[in-house]
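Course assignment 3, question 2. Fill in each field.
Student: A.L.
Task: Predict the tertiary structure for the chain below.
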Amino acid sequence: MSARVPDPQTDPAEADLWFLPGPFDDPPEPGERAIVTDWARAEAGLAARLATVAGRLGALEDRLSRGPEGWRHRLALIEAAELSWFAGDRIAPDRLALWAALRLSGVQDDAAALARIGWALRRLSGGPGPEPALTEFLGRHEAPSDDPLTGRAESWLAMMQGARALHPISRACMGFHLWSLAGLSRTGDRLEAAVTAARIAASGFAPLAMGGAGGLRASGPPAARLAKWLTGMEDAIRTAMRTLDSVEAWDSRAGTVMAPLSGRTPPALRRAFVEWPLLSAPMAESLTGASRAAVQRNLAWMQARGLIREVTGQGRFRMWKAV
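Answer field:
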């Protein structure tokens, strides 16, 4: 028994599903080639724009490779928080920071949403990418072998492997927009699609949402989707670069101001503020290994000298940021 292959001429509603495999057949290769060809044409038409964005992304990757590891983590946390708004979870950076560092959540926080965004933060921060083991990347490798999503993930991955001739940025855009058509829908699938695309587009990750998520909301033919994707990615890269400029300037100033201090707590606390956009005292204790008294003393010293600012205005559960 073989699956019915939809005819785009007589069944236009099914045309976009042409690449999907039937329940017993291998993916239809002619349909796959047609999809990849459409994206290749879109890429060719936007070659100059793509080259510009790829150059900016390469510059960001180079800067991250030469900077402290905390820079990458900081950008990943900001990106994950921005993606949470795109996915509908709406997790603020301070909530995500508390969850990531201490597994703390507020009474009104959705624990499942925090877990999803925490997954995004871990995947954006490093580790193996989605290729060639997509189910492991998504955390679905323990699913039953007959889970239909497992087969669909393999089909999507096969499609991506067949598009190797495309630039990674174009491949990422194509994969993102084919995600729902491939039947990979599950709670948080928009988030999963975006994080997977971010890791495909670059050796580390390509920021997609921190400049606004417009590139993730495109519709229309491949050329329109890719054009919006490139604009959104360029905006996100600019935001990431400005963030690093600010962090680097603060780190240099803090190093000068804190030079007279002795002990291991001041430099450890300085590194923590480079890595995290917001810090609470318990987070600082956990990240630096210092005592509560040492942390509180150094936070007060840094605040008195204008290096950090308390942002909650509360007597308890206070958070500080570098300024």
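Instructor remarks: The mean pLDDT is 85. The beta strands are 279-280, 308-310, 319-322.
Grade: pending
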